[in-house]
Amino acid sequence: MSIFDIQKNRKTIVGVGSALVDLLAREPDGFIETLGVAKGGMNLVDSAFLGDLIARASSRPSVVPGGSACNTAIGVARLGGRARFVGKLGKDDLGGLFIRGLQSGNVDAVLFDSDLPTGCVLSVITPDTQRSMFTCLGAASEMQPGEITSDIFADAAMVHVEGYLVFNPELLRAVLASAKTAGALVSLDLASFNVVEQAGPFLKAMVAEYVDILIANEDEALAYTGNIDEAAALEHLAADVSMAVLKLGPRGSRVAHKGKKIEISPLVCHDAVDSTGAGDLWASGFLYGLAAGFTIEKSGEIASACGREVCRVIGAGIPDDGWERIRKIL
User: 66, CA 20 to 30 Å: which among 72, 103, 141, 295?
Assistant: First the structure.
């Protein structure tokens, strides 16, 4: 199936991933340095470790619905598209908060429940606007391959999968296989350089077998391809997929499709305060544009606008005035 040959009666973009509540904390660089982890990555932790980090934070973190694929689905809906999210929640107050966030964002949902608490991720935002994530999956870790069927994706133009699912290999395989059986295009965001480094050959095998659109930032592309040179990295990313995206932050992005390389100009954010959700919302704009029938260039422009607006606020929720500026581009 061509990227631009999506069935006209299919407009839904389905995000599949970990249902997580975001805890957002602004801290100095020293907070990360004392933990001995690389800034900007994602670290899986248990509830005790997460609780200790929260206790050490200089102020009480703010709480918002989150998770990479969920952020993307909400962004698609705010752009006017049809969006669905698939994940697993605990039967607790945080789970209720998550559901209300989807409802207010006009996102359809397929949510399984668990006796474990709803998953949380503490995003530590340092003065350079980088965010370092500490994730306790909780209920999200219990989503089972058998719960995923092709019926969930029956009306999907695209199924967008967050790379974090590689930590549950059989679940990832079930999601990808069910999406393809349903006739949807599959988009995969590599999510974090930590994820790529730990996933090994399994991730590349899944990409080659199932993925149509592969999305990576510079760090993820380096971990995936081993290439420092951007042109070589993009070519490597595109080797097994129909479309590859290399995001270059303030330098825009590059897209490879059918042997062509397309430059997407940046929309620089001069008042950035936080990069949380920047990649997720970039994906919202890009996938929405493709599903709506826009060109790659126009889809990239919408994506850049979404990425810029989310960097202006703390967390992954773009306020109404930001969405108004984005819609002017449409």
Answer: 295
